[in-house]
Amino acid sequence: MLRYATDWLGVYREQVNALNVYPVPDGDTGTNMHLTMQSVRRELDTCDENSMPGVARAISYGALLGARGNSGVILSQLLKGFADTIKDTREVDTATLTRAFQAAQKTGYGAVMKPVEGTILTVARGVAEGAALPRETDTAEGVLEQALFRGQELLDQTPDMLPALKQAGVIDSGGQGYLYLVQGMLAALRGEALPPAPEITSYAQEQFENEEFGFCTEFLMSHATAPIEEIRELVSPFGDSLLVVGAEGYVKGHIHTNQPDELLATVGRHGKMLKTKVEDMSEQHTEILGMAGASARAEEEIPPSGLVAVANGYGLVKLFRSFGARIVSGGQTANPSVQDIVDAVRSVSAEQVIILPNNKNVLMAAEKAMELMEGRAVVIPTRTLGQGIGAALNFSADVPAADLVDGMTDAARAVTTFEVTRASRTTNITVKDGRTLDIAEGDVIGLIDDELTQSGGTPEDSVMEMLNRHYSGQEIVTVFGGPQTTQEDLDALSAKISAAFPMVEVEAHAGGPDLYDYLVTLE
């Protein structure tokens, strides 16, 4: 049922995105809920399907690890309540199903510091109320039918609960997404085919002025050294739309803030940061309005070229967006799917779209996406984020893609990229120049254009050693600090580079990619 519900929600993903207005018009509710469910499905695919505790753990664990955005984190808690109810049963009868929806509502409300009515929580309450109503037939279908009926009643009332929804003339997007999941569960029982995706003709975001919304900041942390409640209190002063939840040693957080660096630094003191995401919501809002306007501009001239770039790290994402790129979130250890890239290409209003994979492990998916687009896309085989930046600097939407490819490819090849990260295992490796590196798990390691070249010392030592060995007259050195790098570290490293190489221009930015202490480009 949950596997099929994931596909059912996928059909309506963009429609849910188009509804989103609360608490700021960031426009990704459907995508975030769908990605959360895809993570659940991945865990279900590897669990013991004959063990209810195994299935329940896959639902809860997969939802937490895959939770994206405010809506995804709340959905993960709804699913946690559901899973905790079924884990000790051998089968889910109507009474258990009813209790599961009631527990989902309770856990969802409990996860939010200041629950707001008119949201997904309200609809979850309606689903739970409907599931408990008397019914003519004591079947799972009957429970789901009544859950949907009552959930829809409350969903229709959400504009009267939230002024933003009434202003935009829409129902709540997260609540609609939750109902689509329940619909998908019912459709699975009935054996119904997936419906066609609805045509999107308008976006709720068009009802709002473009303004500074702040940063949508998320983190996933393991080995937490403080209770969830304490971490929640630490994060609370930084902004609103706050969610901090956890299970099995993991802590997942989401907050809208104007201080993403300080927030992540504060949280990072209390565990091991696995993933972070910081999105400038004003720029994201602008991007969504661009999508909304694409259909309205159908009779206008479509630009010759568009750009799609795979990236993570809010500083890098912001840079690629400034070049006009549509972003596919991903990179090392978080490779996007072929469908993710195809969807991004389709969302760009242009005659032909250039794809920058920016990682050797994404290159094959990008090339497959290009094949599926049947001539509408072309891939420039950028294997590092540095190469991607070099290529993007030479992009122009007003020039046909065919005339851009050679110049962008040459520009990518002219960039040298240093990456500083940590070894994931103990080993010894002979590198290109014949040296043998003895590497212990957790050691700092340095890569040049994705090839291992250095190990040991501090992250700053790694950057300086690679520069001393491999600098060859470039004019600009750009340094991106990763999620665990402080502004003081970044400033100190920039000063050290300037002192050692006075002939180069040094630029430094926060917001480098996950898992890296530094990303450095030489141009």
Main sheet strand line-up? 13-12-9-16-14-15
- Shape category: globular
Number of helical regions = 20
Number of strands: 16
Radius of gyration: 24 Å
Low-confidence stretches: 22-27, 204-213, 283-300
Beta-sheet strand percentage? 15-25%
Can you give the mean pLDDT?
85
- Structural class determined from secondary elements: alpha/beta
Q: Major beta sheet, specifics?
A: 6 strands, mixed
The end-to-end span amounts to 52 Å
Oligomer: single chain
- Portion in helices: 40-55%
Topology of helices and strands:
Elements: H1 2-11, H2 13-19, H3 29-46, H4 52-66, H5 69-86, H6 94-111, H7 120-131, H8 140-161, H9 163-168, H10 173-190, E1 215-222, H11 228-235, E2 239-247, E3 250-257, H12 260-268, E4 272-280, H13 281-296, E5 305-311, H14 314-322, E6 325-329, H15 338-346, E7 352-356, H16 363-372, E8 377-379, H17 385-392, H18 401-413, E9 416-422, E10 427-430, E11 436-439, E12 444-448, E13 451-455, H19 459-470, E14 476-481, H20 487-500, E15 505-509, E16 516-522
Parallel strand pairs: 5-6, 5-7, 7-8, 14-15
Antiparallel strand pairs: 1-3, 1-4, 2-3, 9-12, 9-16, 10-11, 12-13, 14-16
Give a written overview of the molecule:
This protein is α/β, with parallel strands linked by helices and 523 residues long. The protein has 20 helices and 16 strands. It has helices at 2-11, 13-19, 29-46, 52-66, 69-86, 94-111, 120-131, 140-161, 163-168, 173-190, 228-235, 260-268, 281-296, 314-322, 338-346, 363-372, 385-392, 401-413, 459-470, 487-500, and strands at residues 215-222, 239-247, 250-257, 272-280, 305-311, 325-329, 352-356, 377-379, 416-422, 427-430, 436-439, 444-448, 451-455, 476-481, 505-509, 516-522. The strands form four sheets. Strands 13-12-9-16-14-15 form a six-stranded mixed sheet.
